[in-house]
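Bug: token stream looks shifted between consecutive jobs. Job 1:
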Amino acid sequence: MTQTKDRPRTTVGWHVEMEFEEDEHRTRAAALVRLPDGSEMRAHGYASRHPSDANQPRVGEEVAGGRALNELAMRLLTKAHDEIDDASGRTSHALR
């Protein structure tokens, strides 16, 4: 724990793993985040290459990876929203 002038500050890290499966026309991305509370969240994203497009695997990874991370972000927001509701005993506004 790092101390600031009047309040303690804790540094927390998250570990995100990305994995890709590719063929000539499709890319599949799987994202996994491990949270400090011991939970894990997974999400997937896909990209398809149009037959007239050049074969650029990196671009497919970026699209599929971005989609997987976007899904993961939405799952994290939902988890946080549910935890806020549980702690407060009331229904809060959705986090988006």
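Job 2, same session, no restart:
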Amino acid sequence: MFDTILIANRGEIALREIRACKELGIRSVLAHSSRDTDSLPARLADETVCIGPPPAKQSYLNAAMILQAALNTGAQAVHPGYGFLSEDADFADACRAAGLTLIGPPPEVMAELGSKVSARRLMSRSGLPLLPGATEPLDLPAARDLADRIGYPLLIKAAAGGGGRGMGVARDAGTLADVFRTTQATAATLFGDARVYAERYLSRARHVEVQILADRHGNVVHLGERDCSLQRRHQKLVEESPAPALPEDLVARIRAAAVTGARAAGYQGAGTFEFLVECGDRPAAFYFMEVNCRIQVEHPVTEMVTGIDLVAEQIRVAAGEPLRVRQRDIVLSGTAIECRINAENPARGFAPAPGTITELSLPAGPFVRVDTHVHPGCRIAPEYDSMIAKIIAWAPDRDTAIARMRRALSETSVHGAGLHTTAGFLDGLIDSAEFRTATHTTSHVDTLTGRRAA
């Protein structure tokens, strides 16, 4: 087991990793920007190293400074969390070259799965179902040819990156050129890679993902599935496990596909295989979408229904230990729901609403978990993600879990000059008839807010 781990992230996920390290008896070193010097993760880490000024490119995305911090503090491993450098294969390779273990899959696996195009090729060869579309990056003429073959609407997607960013829907031939060029420009700005591909767009679909764990000894297990269909413009808002109101045989096939894909890729660590489930009159079909080579924001719902600490398992696997559980040992119990509380103003199109927290009240009570790094006096900075907290509620059945989450949201109060949160909006969302009856799709939120996914 590692003696020291450098945590190359911030906010609630950095705090989550520090807590896992403490429970495992591992010394934690937090690499942070100057903006986060007085953050809660910095207060609780065993050691801190400032790696640069607030802009992420000069700190949390500064691979050279992070590697130097790890080497200077005697760390044997780097935990990247999610976002920032967590799925950067070049960073993973640089860690290996420096004699450090990146807590994630090997660089070559990350490189193959990090490109959605090469991931699609691999999963197609492994027998996973794909939406009709490209298996190579496209230029605009090739995209037009593809649309002529498979029809509209067409989803244009960045080949690199993730997190629901770098996508656009071309609904007809007249919009294709604009959507294609806009997505290329977005991909270049966000991911430094302007390559895009395209696939058929499902206007009525559920977003279902499977959590897997794999070790370097050939063991792979799934920990059930999560439904992430409540999302605004491809950004997830609410997640739950297990996915409700899906046929048992379909769920079994989706879970098996994730394990098959992980084995085919030679995956190691915690990862998520994402699928779209087509909704309609005919029997539901599912399609592979992408792989997230990291811990997910929504991992707590899986922890709540399985009782397995995913971050601790990540660390153990990265240290070379075999998985401590087999598939027969994993049993899902009850329902868990997660709501992401962001500093955004729903009344202004979810515009960012950062500021300094002056008053804070977060929920508690039976079977309610809150993952957060904030406290009174804490500033929600405009340089970073606007997440304030993740509220997770568990109950033996879904109706009770919804009621418990609504109670938890009613106890959530965050105040500060200029601050707005999504708590009230999320309460209305999970109280909607579509969510309660599990008839919601990925377009539900955009329909409610009068927006089209783009």
